[in-house]
Amino acid sequence: MDYIKSKVRDVIDFPTKGVVFKDLTTVFKDPKALHIIGDELAALYKDKGVTKVVGIESRGFIGGSILAYEIGAGFVPARKPGKLPADTIRMEYAKEYGTDVIEIHRDAIGPDDIVVLHDDVLATGGTMAAAYKLVASLKPKKIYVNFIIELSMLGGRAALPADVDVTSLITY
After folding, report:
1. Calpha distance 61→21 (Å, rounded)
2. Catalytic site residue 96?
3. Sign of the C-alpha dihedral, residues 169, 135, 42, 83?
4. Active site residue 40
């Protein structure tokens, strides 16, 4: 994971003053880093019977799609309002810089599904907590939660239920 860490770019004062943003676009553009991420994510979930990977807009689409492909699961986008064409369910939530809404198609997850929720970074946990509640409302068999980077000093895991299996490839 040292190679991946070496490719993460710190952006000072983004999106607001005082924030050091962990930018993964520099990781995603590096072919070796992208392959490492795919291999590491697949190793975590290849034997867990995962049927769907839910990627959170927008950077979660990248790792989530790679993971779904690598383990032979379907991919479900969790999107901002108005971006999905069919019947959706939604969850409003507070995040670091204000409030937001996330939606998925109502028919995206079923009771026989085993789901991995994936996003690029775990910060305060608001986005993932909303996505978790959204997916849990569809009553899948099991939900796993995964991130490429976790900013542990922000305590984002506390926003998720204590019994949820949460993994991160890199922790700061």
Report:
1. 19
2. yes
3. negative
4. no
